[in-house]
Amino acid sequence: MDNTKLKRVAVLGVNGMLGHMVTNVLSKNLKLIVDGYYQTTPARIEKGVNYIQIEKLWKDHEDYDYLINCIGHISQKGSESIWNIRKMIEANTLIPIKVALLKNVKYILHQSSDGVYGESNDERLEYSQHNPISVHDKTKSLGEVTASNVYNFRCSLIGPELNTNYSLLSWFLSQTDEVNGYTNVFWNGVTTLQMAQIYNNIVTNDLLQNNRFQNIVPMHYVTKHRLLCLINTYFEKNTIIRARNNETAINRVLATQYPKTNLIYWGVSVKTIEQMVEELAAYKL
User: Which regions of the chain does DSSP assign to beta strands (E)?
Assistant: First the structure.
């Protein structure tokens, strides 16, 4: 195979919830040369991926067609310790800025969050005002770089983790007792598998559009109760989910002022949340 015709792609954060899924999906694409960058020893190795310590990224100045930044640090429930805050500032703000300063990368795809909008119930479009409240959301907002070659993608994510149960999917699958599912918390995020497929579609077909900020929006939205019920069904968990109202109704639903771009990135069609959960449950990592 003539490697001169292959695109070079760097994935940052291969141990993370999104990063390991993106690495897995891209590793199967024979049109790509994939380098996976890590901060700690990779917990999972994909065939054909070159694994590199992230410090080399700043020193070696490798040329890449695309760099996908999946690095992020979430605030653990009830823990905003100094250490945790420092990790969020580094991962969510400083590293994205450092990445944007790289001169050897043609296009940078940066994974951001719906949290940049805070808890406002106003419509959340790409250029709606940010109103982050938590340290995590503030650091994610500050990490969105405006530059000619940086493309910011916003959405909430669910997906399997490698060694932890911090996020919703892995937490729910680890539960042995009944759980609460909130009927007044509204959500329209995507699975990490779907986001990986979107990135794969973009880099394979050079699909980047003119706007540097894009909300990734599926068909429809669900309550958190409905989301847990879908996971329960397709992952065959059989957990009892109690329908409850959260103390405060929360609307985390994103909208887009670029529906055509949203469709281009998804591919043939925009999926429902149920379709994504079903696909994720059937997917073999």
Answer: 7-12, 32-38, 50-53, 64-69, 105-111, 150-154, 157-158, 179-182, 185-187, 190-191, 213-215, 222-223, 241-244, 250-251
